[in-house]
Specification:
Elements (H helix, E strand, L loop, with lengths): L3 E5 L5 H8 L13 E3 L3 E3 L2 H5 L4 H7 L5 E7 L18 E7 L6 H13 L4 E4 L8 H8 L3 H10 L17
Parallel strand pairs: 1-3, 1-4, 4-5, 5-6
Antiparallel strand pairs: 2-3
The structure holds guanosine-5'-triphosphate and magnesium ion (MG).
Amino acid sequence: MKRVIFVGNIGSGKTTLSQVIHGEDIEYAKTQMVTVWGDDIVDTPGEYLEAGYMKGVLNVTAAEAQVIGLVCSAPEPRNKFSPGYGGSFAKDVIGIVTKIDIADPIQIERAEKMLRMAGARKIFKISSYTGEGVPELAEYLAESPEEADKIISGLKLRDTKVISVSKTSRK
Ligand SMILES: Nc1nc2c(ncn2[C@@H]2O[C@H](COP(=O)(O)OP(=O)(O)OP(=O)(O)O)[C@@H](O)[C@H]2O)c(=O)[nH]1
Ligand SMILES: [Mg+2]
């Protein structure tokens, strides 16, 4: 798979999506530090984006990634990237609108527009819970049709379930 880095607000769904793409059960775990999943997904803590002084760390961390995935939760209106933000990476930037299972069409459209303004060249609208849109994203990230098939057949979509909630979970 292409090496992708997920960047987005706290709770936007980066870790959950990483688990789904890797065919794992969804298990809530607050991301405390940059975490590499299977050598191809770089999962970052939302704090790095939200705390302005940490933004530079994201640019350094992204240096080896091929694709920058800007992740935005559709139902959370405070999730934002500044216009042109993706351009600071000088890489292939895609936008991933998450949680479409609990968002209305207006929220999804708002997130999509914001991600385009931030510099996303392509937008994927997904739900890690229902799996909607995940195969399209997997196809984009895979380096061959065979690899895409492998990712898609490994997705545990139907029986995906939240199996634990961390005590450190916000709210
Ligand atoms: N309904 C719904 N909930 C989701 C979806 N994706 C993630 N969630 C939930 O949103 C919460 C936050 O998800 P995470 O994947 O931990 O978010 P994150 O972006 O990794 O957050 P940080 O590690 O704090 O930066 C968890 O309770 C997830 O189960 C989705 O597609 N639909
Ligand atoms: Mg996380």
